[in-house]
Each structure stands twice: as structure tokens, then as C-alpha cells.
Amino acid sequence: MNSTVTLNNGVEMPLLGLGVYAPQHNNEVQQAVEDALELGCRLIDTASAYGNEREVGDAILASGVARNELFITTKVWNDDQGYDKTLRAFDRSLDKLQLDVVDLYLIHWPVREHRAETWRALETIYETGRTRAIGVCNYYQPHLDELVKTATVTPAVNQFEFSPYCYLPDELDYCRAKGIQPEGYAPLVRGLKQNDPKLVRIAEKYGKSTYQVLVRWSMQHGVVTIPKSVKKERIRANFDVFDFEIDAADFAEMNTFFDDTRIAWNPMEFL
Prior knowledge:
Layout: E1 4-6, E2 12-14, E3 18-19, H1 29-38, E4 43-45, H2 53-63, E5 71-76, H3 83-97, E6 104-107, H4 115-128, E7 134-137, H5 141-150, E8 157-161, H6 169-178, E9 181-185, H7 197-206, H8 210-220, E10 224-225, H9 232-238, H10 248-254
Parallel strand pairs: 3-4, 4-5, 5-6, 6-7, 7-8, 8-9, 9-10
Antiparallel strand pairs: 1-2
Helix pairs in contact: 1-2, 2-3, 3-4
């Protein structure tokens, strides 16, 4: 399996990274990012709403890893949407991250009254070269249909909740048809399914944890995957997924696990 994907503008993006949404553990985020970088992780996914962009920036500086080896994502939050507000929010994010350029800048949620102007701001930022790619989060087909009517830049990435329990193949197929790279958050379903007997049986077959099987399933779909943890050993385990492959029968079975379990809002509430 390739360890990177190529976005629609030619930028290379790691297939596996670290999510840092950890509102109860932001004091641990810097160490977690340093640990992940030490373990070989090169994709870090943060957001202004997470309140830890500065910790991520400090970790990047402390790590000694060359900037051009890293892929850093952040996002504009709902309260900061709109053209001018988004431009200011991006400046604040760059300042906190202590970077001149981010690799990917995303709209966090498709806020109805602001999303068109917010996307226009992202296009402006992209044109200035201060982000290498732009994209969206939590956009389903209706949001993307609306966006592409006025966008002059096709989103490079669409990040949405993705696990066997929140598996929407039509959304995946739509993104691929439009040349938009899918990226999945909450692949581990916050631990809610770690003891699902169906999943446990498959994990035992491969000598892996249920979490590792969930990460691998996402990756085998070609979806960029960002499991989150602030514990070094858990981060290490989440990245120990390149030495096995879920076979076709088990993969197909996992595709039937959908039960609409979500840890975030349903994007269809943002129509």
C-alpha cells in the first residue's frame, strides 16, 4: 500500500496521520505531536476550534523534522466564517502554528449563510501560496453540488466522519468522481465499538487490535485516515498497520457494519 495519495493539484499527502482533537488533553498535545513525529508520522491534523494550534507549532519546532517533510492541516471554525473573517482567522492560525504556509486549509462545517464566501476566501488564500491545498470538512453531496457551481478551484480534500459504522459509499464515490480526496476522522469511533463481537473476531484473525483493523479498513478504502491519541504507545499501535491486509471477504463484511453511529454532527443538518 502506498503511504501517500496525490491530490488533484499534484500535492502529495500522507495516507495516515495524527488527529489532535483532544479538548480534555490539550496540555498533552505538544508531547503527543512530538511523539508522533518521532515515530514517523508526517501528517498532523489540527483546527482553530481545537485550541491547540500553538502546541502543534511548538511541537513542530521542537521535533527538528524538516518542514518540507511535514503535512500540516488546520481549519476555519464556524464562528469565523465569511470572506473577511476567514482571512483574519487564517492569519491567526498561521501565527499560532508559527508557519508561513500550511499544507491544507479546510472549512470545518458547511455553515449555510457563510459557506460560499468562506470558500471564496480559501481560494484567495490558495492563490497567495500560503496554503498548498484547500478543501472542506463534513460536506455531503448537496453541499458539494452547491459549491462546485461557483467555485473556481475544486476542493482537494473532503474530510468527514468515516468508519464501518458510518460508511456511506455514495459519498465516497461522489468525491472520487469529482477528483476530491476523501479523508476520514473518528476512524476509531472513540472506542465505542472496540468490543463489537464482529470486529473482535476479525481482529483476532489478523493478530491485531480492533483499533488497528479499523484504521486499516479506512486506508484500504483509499481514505486518508487520522486516528487521534495523546498516548505514545497508542499512537505507535495506530501506525502499526502496514504489515497486514484485510482480505476481500472480511473487508466486504466490514462494509456492512453501518448503523449510523456518529461522534459528530450529521452534515445533513447543515443544508
